[in-house]
Amino acid sequence: MELVASARLRRAQDRIEAMRPFADRMLELMAGTARASASVRSLPLLQKREVHSVAVVPVTADRGLAGAFNAQILRRSTALVRELQGQGLRVHWLPVGRRGTSTLRFQRVELEGAWEGFSESPAYGDAQAIAHRLTELYVGEEIDRAVVVYNAFVSPLVQKVTVSDVLPISEEMLHTDDEEREQDRLRGDFIFEPEPEEILQRLLPVYLETELYRALLESAASEQGARMTAMRNASKAAGELIDDLTLRMNRARQSEITQEILEVVAGADALTG
What we know:
Layout: H1 2-35, E1 53-58, H2 69-86, E2 90-93, H3 98-106, H4 124-139, E3 145-155, E4 158-167, H5 178-187, H6 196-272
Parallel strand pairs: 1-2, 1-3
Antiparallel strand pairs: 3-4
Helix pairs in contact: 1-6, 4-6
């Protein structure tokens, strides 16, 4: 299992690296379009309102045998929910992964949505399904904020629990510095067809899908890293246990042999005496 997890980890890392240029280009395109728009704040996914209800999306694995991978996500999500409820906010659970879904259902928690079966190899369509549900809840004003809790991949030995707000989409990411504005001025004005607002309205859902897809890929790589480490530790612990039990067996066997020798010697002394 350690070797299998190691091979899958390499593929997961390659997928993360492959999507980064797309994500960067998407953000650049959105920023350029937003600068040409006069009514950015009117777009539904950018509208900020008073928070009364929050969607929490914990990203767990479909399988276990990965150390504390699933437990730390559920622990952090539960702590976040208690904090939100302490502020008087309603919470909607939308778990990703069989482990998180089964745990919440066992606790009889009402779920607004659940997805499973793709934790080790998520596809872009999986992120689209999650993004569509979150967008539906947000535009329908059933939620005012959406938070994703997942394991960010740092190294095969380190996975960092990350809490990321995905809705509403922050306007700050659409702002650029003076240097980029100067580059735009030198390149000249662009003619947008259709209007910038309409283009941005189409790009924002794609950006949300991209951010969720990134979280799923990070979680997939973290899962394989955690499983590889857990199996390595399990193998090491099993080897140490075998060595310890073998030593105990040899000591017990030697003690039994010594006892038999003493009994034979005592019996021989009794006969000769």
